[in-house]
Write a structure and sequence with these properties.
The complex is a heterodimer of chains A (162) and B (190).
Chain A: H1 6-21, H2 33-45, H3 62-76, H4 81-92, H5 107-134, H6 143-159
Chain B: H1 2-5, H2 9-12, H3 22-38, E1 58-59, E2 70-71, E3 80-85, H4 90-104, E4 109-114, H5 118-128, E5 135-138, H6 142-146, E6 154-158, E7 164-169, H7 174-189
Parallel strand pairs in B: 3-4, 4-5
Antiparallel strand pairs in B: 1-2, 3-6, 6-7
Classes of the chains: A mainly alpha (162), B alpha/beta (190).
């Protein structure tokens, strides 16, 4: 395979796997492509309560199919995306949203990783600041040490071949 | 001039001793956190409807059982249970004796029959017994979704004002009756 064709093949594979993974069957789909696109986008953000780690767009569970149908009915009735999410949250709680909302109860969840990063940066900074202090300038040699050094250097000079 | 040989070791030793405790404390903290997590069932979701009025609904009867069906008008007045069941649901068969037991004790129990063929539901009640006062057939599953149900069986405790006080996910077992259902019914009856 030539190098030029590889990206195209990978893209085709990615598209193919994406198309088979969605559980939405053709007869569920809305005739209006714009509404159907919104339904698919919403479905990917909503948790299937039965399988819990799949979106309703991905899941084959009966409840996920029912929820997909409700999403499409509400879209046809003219509801906004936010109104549809609210409708489901009123019944199933925030858990139905795969992306947890930012509110006081979830602040730690959202900010936590950054706190850990900040703590790590703090540790690295403290460590680096200490390093130069550890590598202090060597103190002056005292007279005895100077004499020993002189002797060693003199011996070195004698042993070196001329 | 011993500081030249080991300029920092002696200065650091005693001051940073607490650092060696840090991993132990971290381990203990994580251990407590995980131990608490072991006691929770991650499949059980809290209901958002707790302490709220039950959703309004009107379900048709199971043809052949009665002509009344089950609607939100039947809720309240006294503490009661609402059970969501289906004849195709195996855990429902397991919990059925618990419901029969509660009904014998005089607890009013209504039921939502979820996505069932009426004849199958009737056969289920004929074979295993019928502890229910009202039964509504939710063939499309819409009312059940309004109740925030995500699997059968589920059982709700409703107080005299028609508010949902408790939601039990999965089959009721004897210990659930003893530890939760009966104490709660007694508490809200007062």
């Amino acid at each position: 395979m030539s190098r030029g064709r590889l990206p195209a093949v990978l893209l085709a594979l990615a598209l193919a796997s994406g198309a088979t993974r969605a559980a939405t069957s053709p007869e569920e789909m809305l005739a209006d492509p714009a509404l159907e696109a919104r339904a698919r986008a919403l479905g990917k953000e909503l948790r299937c309560l039965v399988c819990q780690n799949q979106s309703i767009d991905d899941s084959d569970a009966a409840l996920a199919r029912d929820l997909r149908r409700i999403v499409r009915e509400r879209l046809l009735a003219g509801d906004s995306d936010a109104a549809i999410e609210r409708y489901l949250v009123e019944r199933y709680g925030d858990f139905v949203l795969l992306r947890p909302p930012v509110k006081p109860a979830t602040w730690l969840l959202w900010v936590g990783p950054f706190l850990v990063l900040l703590a790590g940066a703090g540790l690295v900074f403290a460590f680096l600041r200490r390093r130069p202090a550890a590598a202090v300038e060597p103190a002056e040699l005292d007279p005895t040490e100077k004499k020993v050094l002189e002797a060693l250097l003199a011996e070195e000079r004698r042993n070196r071949p001329a | 001039m011993s500081t030249r040989i080991a300029p920092t070791d002696t200065a650091r030793g005693p001051r940073r001793g607490w650092l060696y405790l840090l991993p132990v404390l971290l381990f203990a903290g994580i251990g407590v956190f995980l131990a608490l997590g072991l006691g929770r069932d991650p499949q059980t979701l809290p209901s958002v409807l707790i302490d709220k009025p039950a959703p309004s609904f009107a379900l048709p009867p199971l043809p052949g059982r009665d002509e009344r069906g089950f609607s939100s008008a039947d809720l309240g007045g006294r503490p009661m249970l609402v059970n969501v069941f289906a004849s195709w649901c195996v855990p429902c068969r397991i919990e059925h004796p618990m419901l029969e037991q509660l009904a014998r004790e005089g607890v009013p129990i209504h039921a939502i029959n979820y996505k069932d063929a009426p004849e199958d539901a009737l056969a289920f009640l004929r074979t295993l017994g019928d502890p229910f006062e009202r039964v509504g057939a939710d063939r499309e599953g819409r009312t059940t979704i309004d109740w925030g149900v995500y699997g059968v069986p589920e059982t709700f405790v409703i107080d005299a004002r028609g508010r949902i006080r408790y939601r039990h996910v999965g089959p009721l077992q004897p210990r659930d009756l003893e530890r939760t259902i009966r104490p709660l019914l007694a508490e809200i009856a007062r």
